Amino acid sequence: MIDMKTYLLNGLFLLAVCLSSACTEKTLNKKSDGQKDFPTLSAMEIFDNLDTSFEAEMSLVDSGGTQIRSVGMGIHPSLPDFYGGGYYDAEGHAVVLVKGDPNAYLDEIRVRTKSNNVIVQRCDYAYNELVALNDSLGIPFEDEALCRELGWTGSGIDSEKNRVMVGLLPLTEKAKRRFKERVCSSGAIEFEEGGVSVLDAARLKQPQASPLHLRPSNR
Questions:
Q1: Average of pLDDT values for 92-117?
Q2: Do residues 196 and 147 make contact, with C-beta atoms less than 8 angstroms apart?
Q3: 3-class DSSP assignment, residue 123
Q4: Residue 165 CA to its chain's centroid (Å)
Q5: What is the pTM of this model?
Q6: Which of 98, 102, 115, 131 lies closest to 199 in space, CA to CA?
Q7: Rg (CA), the chain
Q8: Which region is the signal sequence (predicted)?
Q9: Which of 86, 155, 166, 174 sits between 20 and 30 A of 210, alpha carbons compared?
């Protein structure tokens, strides 16, 4: 009877230790999670903080003391290779695109935006890639005869679609095919009819827009 009582007491003691340990671990985890908590911010505040985080990483001077500039864009932030752009969705929420698994970058985006309500989604292309592609289109776009032949009215980056938009007039399969043959066949290009109106400031957002190339449609 004594042995049975001893075993019972020992069992109760171990149970108490386990419960205490579990409670302590839960408290520590809650505290740890709390350190990553950020306030709920407006979409504009989120993008302002994101811009600031990029600007903080900007390298304005090279080893020779010369300012680093991108042709046609001026000094601009150094964007991470995973960053795909950002935009306001239909409800006005801030959406940040990443090239890769959104969960892998969620914590970093929250730290950069100082917000817990930023939406992170996967995309196909890094914003740096889109900027480089759009910039490269600026060279053939200077050829007025080529633009007239192709019906090419403009180009620009649509952050929501994560594509470089090219305006064609008229917009036909033949026109698309000729553009791909004569200018560029990148999968990051999407076509639309007429002039490019995709850079709507009320809907789209990116830290540094690439030049928007446009021509009058009545040339």
A1: 97
A2: no
A3: coil
A4: 17
A5: 0.70
A6: 131
A7: 27
A8: 1-22
A9: 174
